Amino acid sequence: MASNNSTPATVTTSSNAKQFALLPKIINGGIAGIIGVSCVFPLDLVKTRLQNQQVGPNGEKMYNSMLDCFKKTYRAEGYFGMYRGSAVNILLITPEKAIKLAANDYFRHHLTTANGTLPITRQMAAGGLAGLCQIVITTPMELLKIQMQDAGRVAAQAKAAGKTLPKVSATSIAMELIRTKGITGLYKGTGATALRDVSFSIVYFPLFATLNGLGPRRDDGSNEAVFWCSFLSGCAAGSMAALAVNPFDVIKTRLQALKKAEGEMQFNGVADCIGKTLKHEGVTAFFKGGLCRMIVIAPLFGIAQMVYFLGVAEALLGTKSGNK
């Protein structure tokens, strides 16, 4: 969740950058992330399983579509099976969002020109740097989440082959990685995660700012976009950015899957994953789960923008919202 990239863009000029308050953004980002993840996590789980699924030598597949994956997962694991790995995501979503929000505003503030403008290239640079900062939290979160989400698929294939796999938890996976590989074990797939998150932020933040700037303004003199415009801009920018970087998400997901079903390929880095996937499955494999990812990201960003519009943190802290 997904990590999954579910952070709202904040359109910052040199004047309002000076009014930047970190604590409300941390709280709003955390609330937005928790609500968003809870709402769309089953879709993110389906996305992960579709991306990790490899086509057999005779073209056989465990899941034929997004709906088929939903049905088989629910039938085999029940309602709560759709939320495997959500605890890890919810636990780490607040610091991830705090880092990305604060970093984006920080870089936008320092990259704003002397005359108060922020050219598109600088917006892209600010977003990319913010995406780079967030991987400190994102990589371990995504790694553990993917193991939990994909465990059901691997267990189902093992059961079909007459084998039984022991149940795993995020804690046991994390402890085993630290015991065998040290803290760096939690950062498997960092390069691919950075490739996805930096690319996503480069596309999303400027696109949201552009779309949001096209809509009607509020009549309170704030020059801010009306609620529905920010909501739709977040949904549109998030879904388009998600589709654009889906190939990187497929690569990251496959590299971070520690357990493979019997007969599935192993990958030794980004280049190896790209080469083998292209050779055995073709270019369309890089867009597996693309629709799912767009459906996941759009409401995440819409919800996040709604939280900012409502000023939840400002209401809790008894301060005036800087986003209204």
From TrEMBL:
Belongs to the mitochondrial carrier (TC 2.A.29) family. Keywords: Membrane, Mitochondrion, Mitochondrion inner membrane, Phosphoprotein, Repeat, Symport, Transmembrane, Transmembrane helix, Transport. GO terms for biological process: malate-aspartate shuttle. GO terms for cellular component: mitochondrial inner membrane. It is a multi-pass membrane protein. Solcar repeats lie at residues 20-110, 118-214, 225-314. This is Mitochondrial glutamate carrier 2. The lineage of its organism: Eukaryota, Metazoa, Ecdysozoa, Arthropoda, Hexapoda. The chain crosses the membrane at residues 26-46, 225-245, 294-317. GO terms for molecular function: L-aspartate transmembrane transporter activity; L-glutamate transmembrane transporter activity; symporter activity.
